[in-house]
Every structure is written in C-alpha cells, then in structure tokens.
Amino acid sequence: MLLFPALQKLGAAPHDSHWYVLSLNLKAKRFEVLDSLHEEDSPSLIEHATRYMNAIKKAWLIAYKDSHKQIQDYELVYIDVLKQENGIDCGFFTLMFLELWNGKNNPAFTHDQVPALKKILTLRWLNHTHNKCKQWSHHLFGNNS
C-alpha cells in the first residue's frame, strides 16, 4: 500500500487549502480517499482526487511498465472516516490517517482523543533521533527547564 498526502487548493488565499490522503491499495486493487472534511459526493474532492489518481497511474506506467502489477483499471473509493470539527485540523487528521490506515480497518481514534494525540505527536517529533535541536525544551520553555 502506498499512501500519498494530498494538498487541495480551495481558494485564492494562501491558506485556502485542505489536506487529505490518497491511498494506492495494491492488495484491494483500488485507490482510496480518506478525507476528514469532505463527504463522498463532494465535486471538488472527486475532481482533485481523480486528477491525482490519474497522475499516479501515468507515473506508474512509466516507472513500472514491465511489472506484472498494473493499476490502470483501479477505481477511486471513498473511505468514510472521522470528520474534523473545525476548519484547521485537516493536517492533523491526515497525519493520523497516514499512520493508522491499514487498508481495511477505519483509523480508530475519537474527537475526545484529538487533544492528547496532538501532544503525543508533538512530543514524538521533538524527541525523534532526527531532530537536530536537542535543546528543544530550552527553546520552548526558557532557562528554567
């Protein structure tokens, strides 16, 4: 399974955009959309996801033309996932879908868990071995930490 974060422009302003996930599920032989904002019948989502899917299909033909696994006939399927309760959490939901989507089971988290999960993700990033700023607590909290 290949997971692609997708950024959809919704308007002219720089912040008028929305993140969602496009999954290439090779086992299920389909593309899947996981979107925390739009419903299945959203014309803008369908149009954007279809363009993204077609670009992936085109790249696949070039990169894997001799492969026995071809994706040209795969269709786009909407996965009904938890919806965000505001207009700004799409990035967080996208990260959760990228981490939790296994191609079968709906990513399991609730609205009540979102604040704690945001803290957990932040701490994971701050303490990650690739974070070159080892003194992050000093930068966040000053000299008293």
Automatic annotation (TrEMBL):
Gene3D superfamilies recorded: Adenoviral Proteinase, Chain A (3.40.395.10)
Record-annotated Ubiquitin-like protease family profile domain positions: 1-101
InterPro entries: Papain-like_cys_pep_sf, Peptidase_C48_C
SUPFAM superfamilies named among the record's database cross-references: Cysteine proteinases (SSF54001)
Molecular functions per Gene Ontology: cysteine-type peptidase activity
Keywords on record: Hydrolase, Protease
PROSITE patterns recorded: ULP_PROTEASE
GO biological process: proteolysis
Family, as annotated: Belongs to the peptidase C48 family.
PANTHER family linked to this entry: UBIQUITIN-LIKE PROTEASE FAMILY PROFILE DOMAIN-CONTAINING PROTEIN, ULP_PROTEASE DOMAIN-CONTAINING PROTEIN
Protein's name according to its UniProt entry: Ubiquitin-like protease family profile domain-containing protein
